[in-house]
Amino acid sequence: MEQYKVIGIGDNVVDKYVHQGMMYPGGNALNFCAYARMCGMEASYLGKFGNDYIAQYIQKVIDDLEIEHSHCRIFEGENGYARVTLEDGDRVFLGSNKGGIAKEKAWDFTENDLNYIKNFSVIHTSLNSYIEQDLATLKKRMCLSPMISRYAGMMNIWNKYAGMRTFHSFHAVI
């Protein structure tokens, strides 16, 4: 069986559960990397971090999960976070800083970044990654995960299931 080498590009945040006083790392692109590692895949993450304690915490978790992240950028400012609570077992979002530094700083992928990215079988990103303007460039380099393919002008294999309920963060490699 072919071993996929995948990269998540984009969002990393923490959810601050105010009723517990706990925070949990996440973000669609980062979650993708974590789940890929759990499935035994080689996974890397390319994202933007602030220079605060939240960013340091997420980077420690990424290290613990053995997700490569040497090409990430660090900027002055807050990392992304959302404030969350639970009501009747459901998550209720109380507010966020809208991705923090990730929203404020443009990607400006370098040729070095693009050469690094082309070493992967699949790119995964999300609508919260602020790279829509770069998808056409990334599309020329490699395979995009199905949920972002339509934004890069590619046929979305999931269109035939349009009548079925699907989840925003569901992805598959076919």
Task: Describe the overall structure.
This protein has 174 residues and is of the alpha/beta class. The protein has one domain (5-161): UDP-N-acetylmuramoyl-L-alanine:D-glutamate ligase (3-Layer(aba) Sandwich), CATH 3.40.1190.30. Helix content is 26%, strand content 26%. The chain contains 6 helices and 9 strands, in the order E-E-E-H-E-H-E-E-E-H-H-E-H-E-H. It has helices at 28-38, 53-64, 101-104, 111-117, 135-141, 146-149; strands at 5-10, 13-17, 22-26, 42-49, 73-74, 80-87, 90-96, 122-124, 143-144. The strands form 2 sheets. It has a 5-stranded parallel sheet with strand order 5-4-1-8-9, sandwiched between helices. Strands 3-2-6-7 form a 4-stranded mixed sheet. It is globular, with a radius of gyration of 16 Å. The two termini are 13 Å apart. Residues 147-174 have low confidence and may be disordered. Keywords: Kinase, Transferase. Residues 14-126 form the Carbohydrate kinase PfkB domain. Pfam families: PfkB (PF00294).
What is the β-strand count? 9
Strand order, sheet with most strands:
5-4-1-8-9
Give the overall shape, derived from the CA principal axes.
globular
What is the CATH architecture annotation? Answer: 3-Layer(aba) Sandwich
Task: Sketch the topology as an H/E string, one letter per element.
Answer: EEEHEHEEEHHEHEH
Classify the oligomer.
single chain
Low-confidence stretches: 147-174
CATH first level: Alpha Beta
Please bin the fraction of helical residues.
25-40%
Radius of gyration: 16 Å
Find the structural class using helix and strand composition. Answer: alpha/beta
Please state roughly what percent of the residues sit in beta strands, choosing from under 5%, 5-15%, 15-25%, 25-35%, 35-45% or over 45%.
25-35%
The main pleated sheet reads as: 5 strands, parallel
The mean pLDDT is 82
* CATH topology description: UDP-N-acetylmuramoyl-L-alanine:D-glutamate ligase
Number of helices: 6
Number of domains: 1
Q: What separation lies between the terminal Cα atoms?
A: 13 Å
